[in-house]
Amino acid sequence: MITGMFLQNTKIKRVLQDYIIMTFGLFLFAMAWVLFIIPAEIAGGGISGVAAVVFYASKVPVSITYLGINIFLVLIAIKVLGANFGVKTIYCILVVTVIFAVAQDLITEPLVDDMFLSSVLGGMMSGIGLGIVFSRGGSTGGTDIIAMIVNKYRNVSPGRVIMICDVVIIASIYFVSQSVEKLVYGFVVMWVVSYTLDSFLSGANRSAQMFIISKEHEKIAEFINNEAIRGVTLLDGSGWYTKEETKVIMSVVRKKETGAIFRKIKQIDPDAFISMGSVMGVYGQGFEKLKL
User: What are the distances in angstroms from CA 72 to CA 40, 43, 61, 62, 260?
Assistant: First the structure.
């Protein structure tokens, strides 16, 4: 019974921690729009971009448009995807709406009077905020919901749906401002957000898969296993040209660890053959925990 209560308390603490960290990420995301993107009258992607374009054209507060469109999409998602559709997503939508409503009234002057800096800083801050939210299993809704609905009925990847939606949203700024410059900076925002988000989520945790063929495979394997503290799998191989049997070392390491491994391999066997490639995700002992 005591163990059960302890596990329950631990679970509650973990959930609270997730929501606190998500709220911080949502704050960064919303403030990126209020401080940089909206004052520069640039349109980024997502429903925030739609709300910004509507604000530029009609002065309707971003919070109202953002909430209205997302409520409509969430209701459709619940009907199409089921009643268990993302509680965290609904929470994120409400938090962003509140921050937009409060901050847009308080902040009326642009923080940076330069469109390029506004697009870059706004994109970076937005990307970091989204990275924090996504890392905790949250979502700001919008085009994510559209992508999930389309993916259920059509064999189209969610990434492609989101990209198409963002391109259309950003392009719409031209019909409001008649400015090619703002259109271009809108795509700058989209690229910076995408790059920052990817860097934040994978960043220092980027991994590489190494295949090493060497006559000194035992020494190399010992180094990787005992000094780099990474697992090693030894595979049997056969050279087609030489017709000789050989051993192939396979190991997955952090990219930041590859420099030391390369230097050691060069010392042990300068003629070693090495193939290295980036991997999308590594789960298990020594890497990320498998999450559903």
Answer: 28, 21, 17, 16, 53
